[in-house]
């Protein structure tokens, strides 16, 4: 079972890129973030022609999340994160697919720091940590996948970077991510690539893609009853190199189930 997460950064504008990747990689489950389209404009029909059922929560201009399932229909269990400090923002959707509960999330960026956007990021993180604990308590096999907007360690960003006090690297952000992992979740990419986990994001600025100045901010966290079943994990870097590409590349895992 191949599960992927991909910040598409405008699902309508980059539909061709998405379709090319889906046709090549054939993931079984996909979590999409930053749809940047309202609910009624999500391209469900062309995705269905490729064999993907979809559940989504759109938002005009900003945010938006979706779960795609190959040759299946996601069974939606939640359309919002419990306790979300601003439920008007479309940042979380949860669905069951082939016996796995999948939470797709787009955690707030949090910049500039300090300020209300960073306060919102930390508050959203607290709500996620609380919900994640309840998911573990349920005993269900769970994947929490998405753009976390957190670089967990200095090993997850290019050397001699210029991000300094950016919200993605702030100690508060990293500590919140570590608290989440301490509940018992496994960071699949980090676990399978302990020496050099692959980057998932390259800014459009300052030629960071051609110079491979990337960050790892897209993560797939696995509940303990799934962690032992991961046989592969990686990033489809070639997607970032396409014409008109998102600034993210799809990150994925393969579960033996």
UniProtKB/TrEMBL annotation:
<dbReference type="InterPro" id="IPR004808">
    <property type="entry name" value="AP_endonuc_1"/>
</dbReference>
<feature type="site" description="Transition state stabilizer">
    <location>
        <position position="149"/>
    </location>
</feature>
<keyword id="KW-0378">Hydrolase</keyword>
<feature type="active site" description="Proton acceptor">
    <location>
        <position position="248"/>
    </location>
</feature>
<dbReference type="InterPro" id="IPR020847">
    <property type="entry name" value="AP_endonuclease_F1_BS"/>
</dbReference>
<feature type="active site" description="Proton donor/acceptor">
    <location>
        <position position="147"/>
    </location>
</feature>
<feature type="binding site">
    <location>
        <position position="247"/>
    </location>
    <ligand>
        <name>Mg(2+)</name>
    </ligand>
</feature>
<feature type="binding site">
    <location>
        <position position="7"/>
    </location>
    <ligand>
        <name>Mg(2+)</name>
    </ligand>
</feature>
<dbReference type="GO" id="GO:0004519">
    <property type="term" value="F:endonuclease activity"/>
</dbReference>
<dbReference type="GO" id="GO:0046872">
    <property type="term" value="F:metal ion binding"/>
</dbReference>
<dbReference type="InterPro" id="IPR036691">
    <property type="entry name" value="Endo/exonu/phosph_ase_sf"/>
</dbReference>
<dbReference type="Pfam" id="PF03372">
    <property type="entry name" value="Exo_endo_phos"/>
</dbReference>
<dbReference type="GO" id="GO:0008311">
    <property type="term" value="F:double-stranded DNA 3'-5' DNA exonuclease activity"/>
</dbReference>
<feature type="binding site">
    <location>
        <position position="147"/>
    </location>
    <ligand>
        <name>Mg(2+)</name>
    </ligand>
</feature>
<dbReference type="InterPro" id="IPR037493">
    <property type="entry name" value="ExoIII-like"/>
</dbReference>
<keyword id="KW-0460">Magnesium</keyword>
<feature type="active site">
    <location>
        <position position="106"/>
    </location>
</feature>
<feature type="domain" description="Endonuclease/exonuclease/phosphatase">
    <location>
        <begin position="4"/>
        <end position="248"/>
    </location>
</feature>
<dbReference type="GO" id="GO:0006281">
    <property type="term" value="P:DNA repair"/>
</dbReference>
<comment type="similarity">
    <text>Belongs to the DNA repair enzymes AP/ExoA family.</text>
</comment>
<feature type="binding site">
    <location>
        <position position="149"/>
    </location>
    <ligand>
        <name>Mg(2+)</name>
    </ligand>
</feature>
<dbReference type="InterPro" id="IPR005135">
    <property type="entry name" value="Endo/exonuclease/phosphatase"/>
</dbReference>
<feature type="binding site">
    <location>
        <position position="248"/>
    </location>
    <ligand>
        <name>Mg(2+)</name>
    </ligand>
</feature>
<protein>
    <submittedName>
        <fullName>Exodeoxyribonuclease III</fullName>
    </submittedName>
</protein>
<keyword id="KW-0464">Manganese</keyword>
<dbReference type="GO" id="GO:0003677">
    <property type="term" value="F:DNA binding"/>
</dbReference>
<feature type="site" description="Interaction with DNA substrate">
    <location>
        <position position="248"/>
    </location>
</feature>
<feature type="site" description="Important for catalytic activity">
    <location>
        <position position="218"/>
    </location>
</feature>
<keyword id="KW-0479">Metal-binding</keyword>
<feature type="binding site">
    <location>
        <position position="34"/>
    </location>
    <ligand>
        <name>Mg(2+)</name>
    </ligand>
</feature>
